[in-house]
Design a protein that fits this description.
Oligomer: single chain
Number of domains: 1
Strand content: 25-35%
Number of helices: 3
Strand order of the largest sheet: 9-6-5-8-10-11-12
Order of helices and strands: EEEEEHEEEHEHEEE
Mean pLDDT: 78
Length: about 300
């Protein structure tokens, strides 16, 4: 997942094509549910903290919302055709022992181009938005990324608009697509001595910096990352899980947080489409009723 952009630069961009047989619609573990809301600076806005997407899990790890450029308070950005952006940061309390966050990111797509029509394949979704300002990365359905509490802790869940950049009439979005997109992060906090960090990344095939290694196949921005599925000959972890990481370190995570953004929209009607957004399975109401922020 992308580190939160410094300005209003849209969407996830610049990732390479994922290995062809990476699972297109990974199913998150049944036990992984969004955690409880975390009190944060958002609570000073007069809204309940959970309305802004903050969550806190068991142990020494939580997520709090960050203001999206151009939006008031901590509002997410919403596009009428399934696109969104919600910025957040990981928070670790003083004195916590963990010094490495491992996050498993999954994205599930159910996008259709006709009422009752078949769901588009990941390749078809990527082709639909190709050439626009952003990318869907539909073939990047499951990957891992690392956050270092001593450095970068901000993150961004974002998705491009589900329409072709060559759409004949951008003012009329009816009859384009409908569907749901669910992006979820399951983050664990571990302790890895600094002198063992390089060996840890090599053990699991994390590439750093982004763009330099054979596993550079995901939209993780500049973070050390690897796809969940690794089909390289002799891969030690062909289908990596958080349980395998914990077993290798011989420790339980000292903190865990699960957070999620889901968009739902339908353009097959008489009215212009609008996206319904859910943060951690709770509906979000876009109070400004903004029609769109441009196609990511």
């Amino acid at each position: 997942m992308d580190p939160a952009p410094a300005g209003p630069a849209p969407g996830l961009a610049g990732a390479a094509q994922l290995l062809a047989n990476t699972p297109a619609h990974p199913a998150p573990a049944a036990a992984a549910q969004p955690n409880q809301p975390v009190p944060s600076a958002a609570s000073g806005s007069g809204s309940k903290p959970e309305a802004w997407g903050g969550v806190v899990g068991p142990g020494d790890l939580s997520v709090e919302p960050v203001r999206v450029p151009g939006r008031r308070n901590f509002e997410p950005d919403i596009d009428p055709l399934g696109g969104f952006r919600q910025d957040r940061r990981f928070v670790i309390p003083p004195g916590a022992q963990g010094n490495l966050i491992v996050q498993h990111v999954t994205t599930q797509f159910d996008v259709r181009q006709a009422p009752g029509g078949p769901a588009m394949t990941p390749g078809q979704i990527d082709a639909l938005v190709a050439g626009g300002a952003g990318a869907a990365h539909a073939t990047h359905g499951s990957y891992f990324e690392l956050f270092d509490p001593a450095g970068h802790m901000e993150d961004s869940f974002s998705m491009t608009s589900m329409m072709s950049p060559h759409h004949a009439n951008p003012a009329d979005l009816r009859g384009t697509t409908s569907g749901t997109i669910t992006k979820r992060g399951d983050a664990h906090l571990y302790h890895v001595p600094p002198g063992q960090r390089a060996a840890f990344e090599a053990e699991f095939g994390f590439a750093q910096p982004h763009g330099a290694g054979p596993h550079d196949k995901t939209p993780a921005g500049g973070l050390p990352e690897r796809p969940a599925a690794d089909t390289a000959p002799g891969a030690k972890y062909p289908n990596l899980t958080l349980a395998q990481i914990g077993a290798h370190l011989n420790q339980q995570p000292s903190g865990q947080v699960v957070h999620e953004v889901q968009s739902e929209w339908d353009s097959f009607g008489n009215r212009q489409p609008r996206t319904t957004l859910r943060l951690n399975q709770k509906p979000w109401a876009d109070r400004r009723k903004k029609k769109g922020f441009g196609r990511r």
